[in-house]
Every structure is written in structure tokens, then in C-alpha cells.
Here is the input.
Amino acid sequence: MSPVSSIRPVAAAVASGLLAAATGACGGLHSAPAPAESSHLDPPAVAAPPAAQAPVAPPEPQPVADGPCNYLTVAAAQAANGQRVGAVRVSADRPHPACFFLGRDGKLQLRTWIVVATPEVARATVDAATPVATSDPAELPGGWSGGSQPTTDGAAFAVARQGSAVVITTNQRQTISARQIAEQVIATLGL
Here is the structure.
């Protein structure tokens, strides 16, 4: 055997021993799992954009102080609604407070509610008061549109134009008085 041929088996044995020692020091011959194969045909995962939330009507107004109503007189409310008014309360809403016309017995006869916001919020306010699915279409001159319908307590008439909504509720079953009041409120406020 030549000196070179006798070195090869020794070198191979030494190399083999070094390899075994090195892999043993690194935690053995266990290999990490291979990365999952991805197909170039699968699109990358992309998070869906959040769904746009539908505009929401503001909460219904609540009376917080004694009146008067600065855009509808007691005489006009009595004439349109056909009942004597015993007291008037107003909400804290701005720029126009909601007005609550009460009978002599303290029960609500008529409420006016004006919402000044975005066109989307104005439409949501009208739809909350007179849902499209249950109300009759209502229109007033100047591009006002919405709905009118009888309610369990009387009737409602609600219309919107651009960023304003006018909602009238009455204890009368006919919507005609609510419509007349809406027309007066719109004219008085110059909406």
C-alpha cells in the first residue's frame, strides 16, 4: 500500500468523526422541517378592507328645559295639530333644539326634530323615523324627500335634503298635520 493510499482511509475516518462531533454539538442529526412549498399560482393572503359602516341617525332628542320653541309658535302647533297645548319643552340639540308640545295632561302631542349633519346622517335619520320598507313616500317642494306613516302613537312625517332632516311626530293618526308642520318649520328656519 502506498503512503498516499493509507492516508485516505485515515483522513476519511477523521473527517467522519469531526462531522459526527459537529452535528452532535448542534443537537444531533435532526433537521428542521422543510419550508412549505408555495405555488406561484396561489395569490398572497391579503386582509380584506374593513366594511364601511352605514351612517347612523343621532339618538332621539330628549326634553331638558321649558320652551318656547324658537321656530314654531304654540298657536301654529295648536292650529295644525288640532289640540290645545299645555306646555312646551325643548332639547339641548344645536343648532335647532327639538320642540315637545305637551297637552294639558302632560302627554306629548307633537314633536319637531331638526338634524343638521351630513347628507348620509340626514337620510339615516329620516329612515329611522319613517323606514322605507313601511312608510309611504313623501316629498316637499325644494327637493325634500322622505316618508310618512301612521305609528302606534299617532303618525310621523320625515324628510331630508342635503345635510338637513326634519322629523315631525304627532299623536294624530293622520300624517297631514305633521306634513303641514314640517312645511312651516322648513319655511321659518329657511332650510
Notes: The CA atoms of residues 101 and 107 lie 9 Å apart.
